[in-house]
Every structure is written in structure tokens, then in C-alpha cells.
Amino acid sequence: MAGESLVGRRGFWASYLLAMCADGTCAGQADPEWFGGDGADADALAEVLFDPEQRLVFRVPVPDGHPVPGVVVVYRNLVDEFGVDYLPGAPGTGACLSSGPVSGLSWQELTRVADCPRPPAEGVQDASGRFLLLLPLLSGEWSDEVVRERIVAALVAVGAPECTVGRAVGHLLGHLERRALHESGWGSPLSGG
Fold first, then answer.
1. Interior CA angle at 161 toward 125 and 41, to 5°?
2. Which of 15, 47, 58, 166 is 20 to 30 A from 38 in CA distance terms?
3. DSSP secondary structure letter of residue 96
């Protein structure tokens, strides 16, 4: 079921991004209010996102001929097995390709997909929304200043309060930095390289 209509709801980004921070490696816990909304908003959206009666899909399409295909974000709502899967999407449509999951995107790949002008198909149309949906895939090396600036801008654009967005970004970057690096010589996980 297409879930793109949920992206604009209060508490969506808190629920979605806090899941990325749930690995238990933080000294402190992130606050849903840092991302816009409050704990009740985030909980209400989590109930929708992880409802076992639904399988929500968020399509991030790109035009045909774009060097990076789109990505489809799928909520895996199986009994006793909840999670989020990132699958390569067919350019222009956002439809899932049959290949395996996307395990990581370099900064360049992430911004290419997020910044795609006027996506040609249904899916998440807003660049900030596309960027934040794909942010959990960021791997490899990046400039902290550039990434921090981009995350701040995206979070503010989707409703995060400017007074707390710095804490939210610091928390997200801390989790991203603890992940394994994507070596540039490996090629793009989206292209099968």
C-alpha cells in the first residue's frame, strides 16, 4: 500500500528517524520533539507504520536515464519480524526491481536520488522527504559539515523546530558514523556493482 500520504503527517519523521537510532549505542535517548511532533504523534504514526495488517511502501522515483535508479522503502510488518527494507526501484516508476536490498548509498548517490528534479512517477515528490527517507542508507565517507547542513535544512523543511534540530542532527550523525563504511571501489549497490 502506498504510504506517501503519511510523510506529511505530524510525527512521521520522529517515528521514522528514531527507528534508525534504536540500536542501543547512545548514551542518551533522542526526543521525538526534536524532529517535529511529540511522543504521542510519533507513537500514533508507529502504530500505522508497523501495523501487521498493512505493508506500507514509500516510492522514491527518478527519471529514466538517471544514473541511479529509484529506491522503494518497504515496511516489513510480519508477525514477530518488523523492520524497514530498502529495495532498488525501477527508474521513472519507483516500482521494485527483483534484485536484492540496497545496503548503502554514498553521499553522491543519496543526493542524486533525493535531488532528482520533478520525479516522473507517483511517490515522494519533495526533495527533503526523499533525502530523509534515504538518509538511513548513507554509508562511506562524507564531509560532516556538508551532511550536517543538508540534514538541518531537510529537517527544518519538514517541520522540525529550529531550536532543537541541531540535537537531532547530532544524534542521527552519531548513528550513521558508527555504521560500516562503503568503500568507493566496491561500486554502487544500486547498479549491481
1. 75
2. 58
3. B
